[in-house]
Amino acid sequence: MPGFSSPPNPQAFNQQVWEIARRIPRGKVATYGQIAKMIPPPNGVEIETYAAFAPRWVGGAMAACPDDVPWQRVINSQGKISERAGAEKQRQLLEAEGIIFDAKDRIDLKKYGWSGRDEDIPQQPMLF
Fold it and tell me: For a FRET experiment, which of 13, 40, 42, 102 has its CA 20 to 30 Å from that of 51?
């Protein structure tokens, strides 16, 4: 399996990630992998390869997102904030939206997870 440190067309991929993240309602969260599954694999990238790399690509997109993207609402698959600069700020923003963390610093994805309904996702042809 070839390595993909970034998507074949990072600008197009990032735009799709940001468009999805903008649709996450206040008081809800989505995971990197959940967002990745909402975006079709780029042309020429096998499904298995895409599944392995796309959540990291989503993380990269969120690290570079514009100010109007609610970056704090995207978390890891364990229901946790990923360890990095800005983690405390992310927690503060989520708590201000009414999201409660448990004793192990996790968010209950069943309670606070965004459904990501298809009608909320931009429908576009593959941009890759």
Answer: 102
